[in-house]
Amino acid sequence: MEEWVGGLWHKYITRKASTEYADAAVQFSQVSHAIGLVYRALGGAAVKRVEAASDRDYIVRRSFLEKIAGENQQISLAWQDDESLRLPETLAVFPRAELNHDLYIWLAILAAQHDGKFRHWAIDNQQLVLDVLERFPALVPRYQRLAKAFVSSRADHSKRPKAEQLMEQAINQAILSPGSVKEFPTVNYAPQAVYLWLYPSAHVDPQVLPEFDDSDEALEAAELSKAKKSETSRKQGERVDSGDDKDGMMIFRLESLFSWSEFSKLDRGTDDSDDDEDDNQRIAEDLDKITVAKQQSQKSARIKIDMDLPSASEDDLPLGEGIKIPEWNYKKQCLEADRCLLQPMLPKDSTAQKLPVKLQKTAKVIQAQFEQLRSVRYWLKGEHQGEELDLAAWLDFHIESKISPTKEKGHYRSFRGNNRDISTLLLADLSMSTDAYLDDNSRVIDVVQDSMLLFGEALNSVGDSFAMYGFSSVKRSNVRFTLLKNFNEKYDDVIRGRVRSIRPGFYTRMGAAIRQATKVLVEQRSTQKLLLILTDGKPNDIDHYEGRFGIEDTHQAIKEANKLGIKPFCITIDQEAQSYLPYLFGSNGYTVILRPDQLPVRLPQLYHQLTSQ
To answer: How many Cα atoms are found within 13 Å in the side-chain-facing hemisphere of 131?
Structure first.
């Protein structure tokens, strides 16, 4: 009974305290596609994610009812950083749904014209609005409609302190007449949320000190910057009890750990090391809330789980000392030479094997399809010698010679067989995510193996030049580049054995692997060069190569390949690939396989389509 009465009271007081129009609310999920389209079409960074913003603390003076209901303590606001654009999860600011929808579009337009940095929040937003309206005059009626509706929806401030009244008047004037307010009064509380403007990033950025040429001064500046970063970064803290985990059972898979946002029990007395200091500081800066618990345990009683390289006796066979590869730093906008070390490798314990029986029937069907490419014949025209007279060439020469002296050209045509002057390199992602199961019987790595085997059977039947490699990584110092078949090797049972010996690896440092694959392709003498990339996810690694850093480096590696006359094409089974692959490969440079089990058949078919155009 008490719970029932409490539930009724909560609903009543929350509804009375709320200033939103729930009946006219528009959800971010309803307009996310339109927002992304508008944001990128008007100049927003193509690599940024467009996501819903979580609530953030916003210290505003609350009414009596809001205090009772516990409302208006956290608000979802619009902001952006280097990685993403964040917009409120729900907008119910106006009594009409179409106005709330227009507000989402307006915020996307503002964000597309802004770099995310503020000197003075209110003055900068006014200037941003002026710039947008000047650049897109057709938006003026829409903005005026939003501005009038927004000012009329503001709460009554007549009973507030004088300074807050002046602040509210200044904000209303700035909304209705952008650029007219140059000074704002100082108040103890933040003004009521201004949903028509962008807010600074929810992540606190440190002051960046200038770089100096002298190494000692640069080192000192770096240390000072780090100290300031620790002092200025403010976090929300909480203390929790340390649960008894001695009798627990590990019931999760390591691949399901995607975020640092959740509480992770970390023994500060036993887990810290000098090597991890920078990573620990970076992780702490990314957290919105830092949770600490008091716990005393012996170091010998703890197990530390880490993604480490296998011992030399269990690892694949390295070939040489490794190759230094550059990497793109998007923050500095430069290619950093020799940043990565790529290690060519051969699969361990691979032996010659026949094509698996389950693939033999499919292989025969694909080979028959590819035989059609071998049997294509065509006429070469304008030749100096050949089987038949080229009447069109002779007629052109005859007419031109009547008009003026003309150099004699070829008057014959020759019948030739198919000449497919093409080299293809298949680069397969062998990261740890390929160990995931697609169903009860097969993993992603099993599908990748079958796909590469059928791909080899198809290209071998038509006689095209091809190579196959796999890759994974553990930080920039160990990018593993597994040789399965190079361009000079014959496709036989030895190659099939290597493909069947591949195993899931580590992470996905795609940029370095693409640069090495590009280097291999450039050495081929074919007129057409195709780089096929087979993957199940976006670029990532554990040393700052996640998020935008990995995306931008891969994007730059693709651009480098294109400039060298190589055609990259990506085949992926990642259902979320639409959010990043268009930026990496272009709208026609990739395909998403919706049913991963169809990949072995689809891969040769895609190659057939790409090389028959």
So the answer is: 12
| Strand, coil or helix: 389 | strand
Distance CA 595, CA 101 (A): 35
- Output the pLDDT for position 165: 85
Amino acid at 19: T
Whole-number Å distance between alpha carbons of 529 and 525: 9
The DSSP symbol for 388 reads E
Query: What does the angle CA 206 – CA 340 – CA 226 come to, to the nearest 5 degrees?
Result: 20
**How far out from the chain centre does Cα 570 lie?**
14
Q: Residue 288: helix, strand or coil by DSSP? A: coil
Judge contact between 133 and 140, C-beta under 8 A.
Answer: yes
What are the angstrom distances between the C-alpha of 302 and each of 64, 200, 239, 253, 270?
50, 41, 22, 19, 9
Pairing of strands 56-57, 74-75: antiparallel
Q: CA quadruple 285, 291, 296, 302: dihedral positive or negative? A: negative
Residue 66, SS3 per DSSP: helix
Q: Residue 101 and residue 30: Cα distance in Å, rounded?
A: 9
> Around Cβ 476, how many Cβ atoms within 10 Å?
21
Kindly calculate the radius of gyration of the chain based on its CA atoms and give it in whole angstroms.
Answer: 31
Yes or no: say if 101 and 31 are a contact pair by the CB < 8 Å rule. Answer: yes
- Please give the C-alpha separations between residue 5 and each of 12, 13, 17, 67, 425, in angstroms, as whole numbers: 11, 12, 18, 20, 68
Q: How many residues does the structure list for the chain?
A: 613
Q: Is the pLDDT of residue 258 over 60?
A: no
- Backbone angles phi and psi of 272, in degrees to 5: -75, 145
Give the chain's mean pLDDT: 80
pLDDT of residue 299: 45
Maximum pairwise Cα distance, the chain: 109
Q: Which residue has the tokens 């005026």?
A: 144
Write down the pLDDT at residue 263: 47
Query: What is the DSSP pairing of strand 377-383 with strand 412-417?
Result: antiparallel
Q: Which helix (H) or strand (E) holds 118?
A: none
Query: Which pLDDT tens digit goes with each residue over 505-514?
Result: 999 999 999 9
CA atoms within a 13 Å half-sphere pointing along the CA-CB vector of 138? 1
Q: How many other β-carbons are positioned within 10 Å of the β-carbon of residue 392?
A: 12
Q: Tell me what pLDDT residue 535 has.
A: 95
How far apart are alpha carbons 444 and 449 in whole angstroms? Answer: 9
Q: What is the model's pLDDT at position 218?
A: 46
Burial class (CB in 10 A: 0-12, 13-18, 19+), 202: middle
- Amino acid present at 458: A
Comparing C-alpha atoms, which of 496, 482, 487, 485 is closest to residue 363?
Answer: 496
Of 503, 507, 487, 504, nearest in space to 495 by CA: 487
Which residues contact residue 146 at a Cβ distance below 8 angstroms, ignoring those fewer than 6 apart?
Answer: 99, 102, 103, 106, 196
How far apart CA 577 and CA 572 sit, in angstroms, is 8
The 10 Å Cβ neighbour count of residue 153 is 16
Q: How far apart are CA 287 and CA 264, in angstroms?
A: 11
